[in-house]
C-alpha cells in the first residue's frame, strides 16, 4: 500500500463558541477496512459547521474534533475492502451515505492529544473518510464546482425533488438564501414553480437569489414577511414553505401560511431546546411538516445527474461561489458567513 502522509494542517474545534485552531496534526500510519485517504482540493463551509461551533445541538462529547462535510479531492490510497474508488480518482466528499463500506472513524493526534473525526471531514489538507462518503467523478470535472455536490447542490435539489415534491406551478417560499437556499431556489425554478419567493436579511443574497430563479424577494430586515408573502400570493394559497433558519418563529410563520394540504419543510437545525408551538389538528387532514435530512439525497445517483445538468448548462453553480479563503483564514471565513458578507458559497482552497 502507498505510504500515507504523516502530518497535515487542519482546522480543529477545541472549544464551543470559540475560534477554530489551525494546527499540524498527525495521521494514522495505516488505513483501516473501508477507509479512503483523500487529498482535499476545495472544501465548502456549511451552516451546519456554524451550528457545531456554537453547540446548537447541545453538549459536544467529541472535542477536540475536525469539521467539514462537502469537498472535492483526489484519492491517494484505500484501505482493505474498498471497491468503489481507487487511487487517482477525483471524488466528491459528502455526508450522506453512498455505496461502499461504513468504516470506523479515524483518530488523529495533535501534540500527543487525540483528535476525533467523523466518517467524513474536509477542513484539512488530507482526510481519511469512509468509502461510502466519497463518490467518483470524471477526471475533467471542475473541482471548485464539484465541492458543492457534497452538500449544497444535492441537499438543495433533493429538498425540492424528494421532500417537497414540488409540482409545476406550485408556490414556494424559501426562507434563508444561503448556499443551500440558493440551490433550493434554483431547483424550484427548474421544475417551474411559481411564484418562488426568497426571504433573507441581506440584499446581496437576495440579488443572487433572483439570478438563481426567485420571482420575488423580501428583505425581512425592512419588511414584514407575512404581509409581503400574502401580498405576492394575492388570493392564492401557499403550497410549500421551506425554512433554512431553524428559528421557531419562522417555522410557525410557514405553518400558518401554508394551505390545508400545504407542506412545511424544515432544513435549518434549531438550537437545542428551541421548540415550536403549532395547532396540530391540520396535520390530521393533509397538512405536512417534515424535517429534511440532506434532501434525502442518494450520492451515487444524484451527483452524476446534477453534474450532467451543470455540464449541459441547465443549472448555475460557478455563480454560487462568491468567496475563497485559505485554511489559515478559516476563522475569517466563518465570521464573514455570520455577518452576511458571504452571499453565496465560500470555498476553502487547500
Automatic annotation (TrEMBL):
Keyword terms: Metal-binding, Oxidoreductase, Zinc
Matching PROSITE patterns: ADH_ZINC
Zinc among keywords: yes
Keyword Oxidoreductase recorded: yes
Organism domain of life: Bacteria
Record family assignment: Belongs to the zinc-containing alcohol dehydrogenase family.
Record protein name field: S-(Hydroxymethyl)glutathione dehydrogenase/alcohol dehydrogenase
Source species: Aquicella lusitana
Upper classification of the organism: Bacteria, Pseudomonadati, Pseudomonadota, Gammaproteobacteria, Legionellales
